[in-house]
Amino acid sequence: MKNKILVIGSINYDLVVYAQRHPIPGETILGNRFYTFPGGKGANQAIAAARLGGNVQMVGHIGNDAFGQELLLNLKKNQVETQLVRKVKEPTGTALITVDAAGENTIIVVPGANATLKKADIDELKDTIREAKILLLQLEIPLEVVIHTIDIAHSFGTTIILNPAPAAQIPIETLRKVTFIIPNECELAFLSGKETDTFANCRQAANYLFALGCQQIILTRGEHGAYYLSQDQQIFAPPFKVSVVDTTAAGDAFIGGLAAALAEDLELHTALFRASAAGALAVTKAGAQTSLPDRIKLETFLSKHQQEVKTTKNQLESNQNYAEIKRSKK
Fold this sequence. Notes:
13 strands; 4-stranded mixed sheet; UDP-N-acetylmuramoyl-L-alanine:D-glutamate ligase; disordered C terminus; alpha/beta
């Protein structure tokens, strides 16, 4: 099916501690709560898109252990196709997450089985990549595999979405082949080597990448909203006002929401609007995949925030019209 969203990425088991604050190096503090959640950026984005109506297939490796079996069942429960999820000898990947009272998190990922994905595995999937409408990638699997996958997908004309997290040095010739690069401010700084402490600096960092041949960037800035950026266009997606509990999977919810909307051939400004709403909903609940909204919850949220929805739509459409006028003058 040509509307398929193919996710090639990590499948992790998250071990999450909630504390009043993050400890400093060498310090021991007491936490408030401890939970385990299914996670991994790849699996998170796959489930985020599937819950919002996307036709999603997951490619990844898990260990032949209890964590892996639980994660596999969870993907199936969320209507993600798992025929290409393989069990390997290495243990299932894990993520150690701490969340403070403000909902801000720090994450250490132990790749485990995720690190066993090879270029040869991707070569076996060329037909699957060719048939996909959208390919979603992150950097919790080996970078050489990501680069190889992008090369193959680009040769087929597949829409490629790359979430460059955790940040890594990616060859510029690879970034040029990506349809949408979706970093946060830290990841944009890493890719560009520029400061991103203000939006003006973020724009300059993006312009630097455009000068090198990158196509389109969607910058996520948390409570400051999201921006679609290209050489001659800028669209701002304002944030929704919500009570923050845990920001762990906000970016994954946004990306999954965007992919689901684009797979339905929705306009870019509408896709950004729905992605922002999905990200906002995700921060109101604890955990990664447990916080990802389904389509009913998203529509209910949009209905309850009608005034914000109206304002956001007007802003997005205004930005879109401005960008079209700007292009027409060139």
